[in-house]
Amino acid sequence: MATTSNYALRLLASLKAEAEKVAAAEGTTLNQFINVAVAEKLAALRTARYFEERVSRANLDVFDRLMEQADDEPPRPGDEPLPGSYQALR
């Protein structure tokens, strides 16, 4: 079992009441609900940081050269670029 640590968390009464309702509806405890919520937030922040770092390393000149070498074959179904996705990097 993982080691645990205690932290006195002060929540607004309305926020705590809503979290208790959701936890009960999910069939879990408030403690477990808060643990999962914190874990989800940390994962989202790490993921965002990862993609920001990847974008900062992007070399669009190399990308352009690779795209120029590509066949003029249209994208296969499901491989279409999202509207504005490449332009957003420029």
Explain what the structure shows.
The protein is mainly alpha-helical and 90 residues long. It is built from three helices and no strands. The chain has helices at residues 13-26, 30-56, 60-69. It is elongated and about 60 Å long. The mean pLDDT is 89.
Q: What is this entry, summarized?
A:
With 90 residues, this protein is mostly helical. The protein has helices at residues 13-26, 30-56, 60-69.
Question: What labels would you give this structure?
Answer:
90 residues; mainly alpha; single chain
Question: Nearest-angstrom radius of gyration?
Answer: 22 Å
Q: SSE order in H/E notation?
A: HHH
Q: What is the 3D form?
A: elongated
The structural class is mainly alpha
| Uncertain stretches | none
- Helicity level, as a percent range? 55-70%
On the 0 to 100 scale, the average pLDDT is: 89
Number of strands: 0
Distance between the termini: 48 Å
Q: Please give the largest β-sheet.
A: none
Number of helices: 3
Strand fraction = under 5%
